[in-house]
Design brief:
Elements (H helix, E strand, L loop, with lengths): L2 H25 L5 H26 L17 E6 L8 E6 L2 E6 L3 E7 L4 E10 L2 E5 L3 E4 L11 E3 L8 E5 L7 E6 L2 E6 L3 E4 L7 E10 L2 E2 L6 E4 L23 E6 L7 E3 L6 E11 L3 E10 L7 E8 L2 E7 L6 E3 L4 E6 L4 E3 L4 E10 L9 E6 L5 E4 L5 E4 L11 E6 L1
Parallel strand pairs: 17-29
Antiparallel strand pairs: 1-4, 2-3, 2-5, 5-6, 5-7, 8-9, 9-12, 10-11, 10-13, 13-14, 13-15, 16-18, 18-25, 19-23, 19-24, 19-26, 19-27, 20-21, 20-25, 22-23, 26-29, 27-28
Length: 411
């Protein structure tokens, strides 16, 4: 029987029960008031019982639902970057109309976002505190996974011989780890340990690590301090890992080219004058060069108008030189300028040439010649391989007294 006919039948039964009770109440006027009240109450009880039976039979009775509420995960991250604006003294970044960053950097990690949510970003250049024209609105969807948990960092074997072995726990869902010595990144990859070599014996170093995936970066681990000792006892070399040939992880290498040579002359107001060239090579995977750090030993902005980066025959990045273009490194007069607005592909098994070019300012004759030194530190060149891991070069030989140095004179 359908629910409709069942409801109809029960409704008729209620009416039939109700009529005799009501008729009896109307014709029995001689009954006492107390008996009348009892009959009315009994009638109401019958009606309520029939209603309950009707609800049970037709499955319409309301039961308080057991509701479980899961909190929306707000753990996604997006790293937003934008191009430089000539003459700007700073930048502002807005997300959906709300300002989330103001400063001189041209990138910002926006965290605490809802997984899979789409956000709109706009950047402005600042001129004496006033906003210039806005950038185009960029709609970006946040990742659908959370960043991994923070790994724990420990020392491995007893450090010796200017080396330190660092090990860390594998974080769930992490695909890459970044290890820093002080503020310098010394390793990026998927392994769980790293041997940091070329250290000064007797010097104490501090390390931190973080884990990453397509959802962003974890917090940095607690720092670990260790002192590199002088002598190691003879031992069998330890192989820390073997990368399968099918993994897609590449190797990036670099070497300084002989041309342009040392002490090359740079003319005032000259343009596109080469002062350094580096050969980069990719093995086991295609590698896309995405960043280059150059280091100078003096206040470069006093002598140069522009610094340009050329890959092959094409200019891929350039900056007009001013004080804000450089970051001072340590207590010495070492200044770094970073180029991160280009992508240059090095095919697997092949090589390419990165050339550093400069435009010099004009000086009074008595101020010349003036000598400038440009060099690479270890890991100054950053590339991304076929599986998205960061690869760095040079692995060693960097520094002002290293193998990647050129001095040129302005005259």
């Amino acid at each position: 029987m359908s629910k409709f006919f069942l409801k109809l039948s029960i409704f008729i039964v209620i009416i039939l029960l109700f009529i005799p009770q009501s008729a009896g109440a109307e014709t029995t006027q001689g009954m006492s008031e107390e008996i009348m009240q009892i009959k009315v109450r009994l009638l109401q009880m019958q009606i309520e019982l029939l209603k309950i039976k009707l609800a049970l039979l037709t499955e319409t009775i309301l039961i308080k639902p057991d509701v479980s509420v899961s909190e929306t995960k707000k753990c996604a991250q997006l790293e937003i970057s934008w191009g430089s604006v000539q003459g700007a003294t700073g930048y502002r970044l807005y997300r959906d109309g709300n300002m989330i960053y103001e400063g001189k950097d041209r990138s910002f990690v926006d965290s605490g976002l809802v997984l899979g949510e789409k956000y709109r970003y706009v950047a402005y250049g600042l001129y004496r505190g006033e906003e210039g024209d806005p950038s185009e609105v960029q709609g970006i969807t946040a990742p659908d996974v959370c960043p991994p948990k923070t790994p724990s960092l420990t020392l491995g074997r007893k450090p010796c011989g200017g080396q330190l072995t660092l090990r860390w726990t594998l974080a769930s869902e992490a695909s890459v780890y970044q290890l820093f010595r002080g503020s310098k990144e010394v390793y990026s990859g998927s392994l769980s340990q790293f041997v940091d070599s070329g250290l000064t014996p007797g010097r104490t170093y501090e390390y931190e690590i973080r884990a990453g995936n397509r959802g962003g970066w974890s917090d940095f681990s607690d720092s670990v301090s260790a002192q590199a000792s002088n002598v190691c006892a003879p031992s069998i070399p330890e192989v820390s890992s073997v990368v399968p040939e099918t993994s897609g992880e590449g190797i990036l290498s670099a070497e300084l080219k002989s041309s342009p040579s040392n002490n090359i002359r740079v003319r005032p107001e000259g343009t596109n004058q080469s002062v350094m060239a580096i050969k980069v090579e990719a093995t086991q995977s295609d590698i896309t060069i995405v960043r280059l750090d150059l280091f100078f030993d003096s206040q470069v902005w006093r002598y140069l108008d522009k610094i340009k980066i050329q890959y092959g025959w094409r200019t891929v990045a350039e900056k007009e030189v001013n004080r804000d273009s450089f970051t001072r490194i340590g207590s010495e007069d070492i200044y770094r300028i970073r180029f991160a607005d280009f992508q240059s592909l090095v095919k697997e098994g092949s090589s390419g040439t990165i050339t550093v070019k400069v435009d010099a300012k004009e000086f009074e004759e008595e101020d010349l010649p003036y000598y400038l030194t440009v060099f690479l530190e270890d890991n100054s060149i950053r590339g991304v391989d076929g599986i998205g891991l960061s690869q760095y070069a040079p692995q060693n030989g960097g520094g002002k007294e290293g193998n990647f140095v050129r001095t040129f004179r302005i005259e």
